[in-house]
Design brief:
With 133 residues, the chain is α+β, with helices and mostly antiparallel strands. The protein contains 4 helices and 6 strands, in the order H-E-H-H-E-E-E-E-E-H. The strands form 2 sheets. The chain has a 3-stranded antiparallel beta sheet with strand order 1-3-2. It has a 3-stranded mixed beta sheet with strand order 5-4-6, with no helix packed on it.
């Protein structure tokens, strides 16, 4: 993926990309720090690597939650529409809803231009729902 995006294959880039592939869900920067281990890379290196990946189109900002951006690989999304995400309001887990489609919004006021549509659904995940029933 890095070579395809014309990026050098440095140790931080490879490690961060592997962590994102393994996670298979959107991650905040602090979650990446935990996955990689505190002694692996500093927060600035992770942040700069994510910015580089954003510029190259490898990742995108999936959504903003509690003032933290969540990043994910961009391979499941089109340039104008991201696949939907589901976040459990009880445990906070987020999952990608790959294969679930949401129609593009229509009927906006004249002059509004949509660059990207993102949808995040909230509710109870299967685990939390079974505990409450």
């Amino acid at each position: 993926m890095l070579k395809g995006a014309k990026l050098y294959c440095t140790e931080p880039r490879v490690s961060i990309l592997q962590a994102m592939i393994k996670a298979d869900r959107p991650l905040a920067r602090n979650q990446m720090v935990k996955l990689l281990g505190k002694n692996h890379f500093d927060k600035v290196t992770i942040y700069r690597t994510l910015e580089c990946f954003l510029d190259a189109g490898l990742v995108h900002k999936a959504f903003l939650q509690k003032r933290a951006w969540f990043f994910e690989l961009a391979h499941h999304c089109s340039k104008i529409q991201c696949h939907p995400h589901f976040t459990c309001t009880k445990c906070g887990s987020t999952e990608c809803l790959i294969g679930v489609s949401v129609p593009m919004i229509k009927g906006l006021k004249k002059g509004i231009v949509i660059y990207r549509q993102q949808t995040r659904l909230e509710g109870l995940c299967q685990k939390c729902n079974s505990v409450t029933n």
